[in-house]
Specification:
The protein has 178 residues and is mainly α. Helix content is 58%, strand content 10%. The termini are far apart. The relative contact order is 0.10.
Amino acid sequence: MPSPSPPRPGPPPPPASLSPQGDTWRLTHLGRLLGHAMRRFDARVLERMAHDVQVPLALSNLAARDQISAAHIHITRHLSLQGDRLTDLAERAGMAKQSMAALVDQCEAWGLVVREPDLRDARARRVRFTETGLAWLQAFRDAVARTEEEFRAEVGDAVAAVVVLGLEAYAGADGAKD
């Protein structure tokens, strides 16, 4: 008969700085607050677009049924007006090329973008907005402006100005600080 194994010691106690009383930092640190703020902002933008009479009805319905997500906004934010190669668009959005290709496929099916030959490289294709996509882009611009106004009304102009200045300094004026 084998001898019983000695009892295993329990996990070590957490350091005092990680005690339950000192755990609120995980819920209130800057990164988490920025993430929540961005999700709230994007949700409000999409909600406004879902109810915007200028947005083509089919796209408005997709937004209203949560079929269009913040991921689709990456195309709206990052696709230049003259169009871009998929690799450039994915890099600017901070996404894998395959993930961006899937988003472009959906947006192409919805009539927001088209793929066309790149005149500078016969092997490549460019993604560009369609007329419907440009209407979507304008509605996005309007929704962002109204959501920014809502933010200012909620926190006050002075706080909003400080937030913008702080975020520009932290992220870079173009949002792409390395």
